[in-house]
Structures are given as C-alpha cells and as structure tokens.
Design a protein that fits this description.
The protein contains 11 helices and 39 strands. The protein is α+β, with helices and mostly antiparallel strands and 689 residues long. Among the domains are: 92 residues; 256 residues, Alpha/Beta hydrolase fold, catalytic domain (Rossmann fold). The longest helix has 18 residues. The two termini are 39 Å apart. It comes from Sphingomonas paeninsulae.
Amino acid sequence: MRLHLPITLLILAATPSVAPERQPTAPVADGPTRSFVGADLFGLSIAADPQISPDGRTIVYVRRTGDVMADRMQSSVWLIDVASGRQSPFSPQGSNPRWSPDGTRIAYAAGDGEGTQLFVRWIATGASARVTSFPGDPQALAWSPDGTRLAYVATVPGEATKIGTAPPKPEGAKWAEPLTVIDRVNYRNDGPGYVKPGYDHLFVVAADGGTARQITFGRFDDGGPLSWTPDGRAIVFSAIRGPEADRQVMNSDVIAVDVMTGTMRTLTARDGPDAQPRVSPDGSRIAWLGFDDKRRSYENTQLYIGDRDAGAPRSLTASLDRAIEDVQWSADGRSLYASFDDHGQRRIARVGLDGRLTPLVDNVQGGGLDRPYTGGEFSVARNGTLAYTGGDAGTPADVWVMASGKRRRLTMLNAVLTGSKAIAPVRKIAVTAADGRSIDAWLATPPGRTPGQRVPLILEIHGGPNSAYGPSFATDMQLYAAAGYAVLWTNPRGSTSYGAEFANLIDKNYPSADYDDLLAAVDAAIADGTADSNNLFVTGGSGGGVLTAWIVGKTNRFKAAATQKPVINWISEALTMDNTLFTSRYWFAKLPWEDPMSYWKRSPLSLVGNVKTPTLVIVGSDDYRTPVSEAEQYYAALQIRGVPTALVMVPGASHGGLAARPSQSAAKASAIIAWFDRYRTPAQVAAAR
C-alpha cells in the first residue's frame, strides 16, 4: 500500500550525506494575510472555451475552479447574457459545450458514473437528456447543419497483442497479471500513460438520443475538430492514415468521410501536417492549418484555403510570419477569424480571402495558471460578435466580448481573491542580446518593494523550447514574488511569436546562444536597478529545465538553481520519451547511434563536471516526455561530484501535469523557494519574512 502525499521531497546533501535540515514551524496566523500564498491556489478560477450563441446574445463557457477537498481543478459550465453580463449556472460539471445551429440547445460532455457521456440541454425548458451510453469519453462535438445529429470522436477499445500463452489456470488460483506485450512504436503518452489497445474514431448520434453509429474504422487515430458539409452528407476531419501511419510524426491529412456509407476521401497530400479543417458556410471552400515539413525544429503553421475538395490550396498567411493557432469562418464566408501569438501576446484578426489582416483583439489569454504561457480561445457569432478568454498579469483569464469594435469584460472570476491580495506588479523591460537583437522580457517585483531597492532575482525559463511567455498571470511568479524575489521571464531566441527565423536560430543547435540571451536579460534586470547581483537564482521546466542545467554548467553566477523535468542526456531522452520518433527526426541531423557526439555536446550532463551551484532536481513520477530517468541521472551525477542537491518527486504527475493539482503546484513552488532561501543572503531572507 502506497502512501499518497502532495509531494515527496528526498533531500540528500553533498557527500557526506546528512539529514534534511529542520524547517522552522510557521507561526499561526491570527488574521488574513495580504500575501499571495500556496493556499490561494484553491481559490482561483479560470475561464475557458467560451462559445457564443449563433445570435450573439448568450455565451456558454467552462469555468475551472480549485476544489480544496478533491485537490483538483474542477470544471463547471456557465451561461452569460451578453447584454447585461448576468451569469447563471448551466451544469455543475462538464466540458466542450456547443450550441445547436438554431441556438435552442447546447450539447456538452459530462461525467456519468465511471465515464463521460454526451448530453443535450434544451435552453427554453432547462431539461437535459443523455444521448450516448458508449464508454469512450466523447470529444470534439459537432452539430449537423440541420441540428438533428451530433458527431464526436471516441476511443474504440481493441484487443491486446499476445505472444505465446500461459499454462491453464486452476479454478480459484491467484496468479500474477498476464504479460503485457508492446508492439507500437509510440507505446505511451505523457498524461494518459501506456497506450491501451484501441483507436479513436468518429461517431454520429441523433441529437434526441439513440444508438450511436461508428463511421470510421481501422488501426488509425482520427481526430477533431469535426466540420460538417452544409448538406449534412459528409464530415471533414484530420488524421494520419496509411500503411506507415504509426511511423509518421506530423504527416496528417484532411479527410472527408461520407456519413451514410463511411467512404473516405483524402483531400490533402503533402509531407507535413494538414489539420483543423473548417468547411465554409456555403460549402464551396475548406480552410485548414498546416505547413510543409522541412524537418526543422519549428515551422509557422499557416492558414490555407482550397475549393470544396481542398484543391488548388493557397496560404492566406504566408506573409504574416506567425503561427496560426485556431481559425473560424465568418457567417458570410468572405473572411475568417484567426488567432496567433505575436511578441508574447495572443491576438485575433480577421483574414480576408486575399490574405489581408484586420487586427481585432490583442489581450487574449488563458490555458494554465502556474506559468505565463501564451494561450486563449475564441468563438464568433453570425453577427460578428466575438467571445474570447482574455486578461492581464494581475488575474487569470476571464470571458471577454468584442462587438462593434469595442471590447468588454463580462466576468471577474477572481475579483474577491485578488482584491484582498497584494499582487506583484509586472512590467516589461528592454533587453538587447549580444548580437544586437531585441529580446522581450518581463519583470515581477515583490509587492511593497521600495523603488530603487535591489532584491534577489529568480530567472524563470520557459519550456518548448519553441513556445513563448507573455505578460500573463502566473501563480509561480506570484508565489516567488511574495517570498521577496523579483522574477524575470523572457523569450530568448528559439521562442515562438517572433517569426520562423527567430525560432529556428536554435534549429539543430539547442542549447546554444539562447544561453547568452538569458544572461543578457539578467544583466538588464541588474542594470534596471531591481536585481541584486549577489543574489541570483534560476529555474525552469522542460526546455527551461534543460537551460537551467546548461546554465549552471557554464557559469557560477547563480547562488542556487532548480531544474524542473529536464532533459539531461539527449541520447537517453530520444530513446525513452513518449513520442519516440520526434527528437532524432527534428532536433538532430542524425540518429543517436550514427552521431552520438552531437547529442552529447548538447546534453547538460556533458557539463556536470563544471557545476558548483547547489541544484534542486524536480520531476513528476509519471513523466513520459522527459522521463524520470533524466532527472535521476542528473541527481546521481551531482551526488557523485559532491554538489549540494536534492531530488523532488511529484507523485502521479505527468510532464504536462506537474502543476495540475493545486496542492502539488503550491508544494513544488514552496520547495523551490525553500531551496533558494537556503542559499540566499540571510539578511535578505529575514527582511522578506
């Protein structure tokens, strides 16, 4: 029987081994505190998936709120009257709400027993009905144009592979579990874990309920979003199919399936992903996202349109030099709405069929809570009213609406909590790299800091490495700032939202000069008068964990470090990560056994002989993206060298879910703060407390 704790902290100091130091008992609070603390993570809410009704009068959205008893972010569904901003509860649980074409009903997924099922709510009466009973957790819901049917994606269980047979089992005997046979190249996924037998396929069910009918088959995974043709005869989707499907990484195609016969037609054929297809309102065109795969670490995802069969395709955003995240047609079919990241901020623009862009919204935010990644979602009504998740660095994402060129905030989900807390102010600072490039960076400072006062600095590095931070609310940054640290985050070369050339400056060369960009940002924070140059600390997760370990192998400027879910040895990572084919195909020119030295030279483990910085190592116990063995290698190497270190294991956490449970997110941040406090100038610690 295993004891489940919010976080397991194994502290083994440098040789000789010593017991963990005793932490002082925290004083019992005799009243509310203005500081942002770990317990506040349970009080936060974040808006997601806002879906505006066809007439633009009502928005249904998903509200994710911390549940202190379940230690999870729980999802409920809410309605908002656009004119008044008045909210009303729709469902105490649920996700993926979608309006019927006539706006009279909403389909959504919700738990029912052990699984998730599809429900439909009639708005006029408030009555709901379950319309599926299939144990496949329906996703990617899509109404037929006439509102009589619903399409969705669900997993069809399969038979496990067997090799050989066990001897006959006597009746009543208690034997070990049977052998597990793995024969798929991608046999586990971060989050879900080891792949269970079966594949994702398309289903159609009557909107009033009844037997669902499977319409795609085979040993392939079919995915959403799903888009019906206006006549209701076909559904367009994307998938990787064909005899070598399991050996493809990104080579998906746009496919049309006949709803009655199941006959499929592949509409695109190129080396590269074609995904997220959207049929135009009149059915004369298809829009989708994709790019030509050049085996580089990064390509801009472009918006394409073609005829009704995706023929004569052309890119509408080739000159934008930004990656399109999502796209939706306007009601008249004469333009599209697209979201993309630009300089660390998600934006929405209208894209004409001639490729001309009209900016609409520049404050889109959403997604996670722990770190300030770009993100956000939107939908569009027939009259052009835009619903989206937006916000700023002072609060998690809320629901916003834009109509007639004016934007308006409809929810203030965290006003009570943030109004009672001293939230760290965030501002942008100017950074110039060694080669003269401008680098975006943001700085959060401790609430109540006196202007001109120098404080300890934490450099927080984003993962990816092809991703981006921005001026968004983040609990890690707020907790660090409340502990007396200034927090610096930046988008070094390799980051997205600055164009393909900037992102590919680290192609087949990561880590490299991104290290110099990060140190230039630290120097800018010192020159700014904020950072105490004698109290510098560094942390980051995933790609940020790689760079944290790389930094302490290159310099001794930092008093302590915390590398989270890092890659330490590219050879072992390439052969143990969940997407087995990815690393060696896109981040290196050759396979690990063909050119092992190129992998080694870019591995932080190759620099461990230089490390003197006390370094904390953090990883989720169920991380299959940068597996636990990566963190353990680094921890062991630091122990062998006698460098002060500790290994933090987050039980049950995947790579993407390291901060998914509020207690673990708060405990992880607390462990990092405690580690940094151990090596921070004592007077600074006392002043902060």
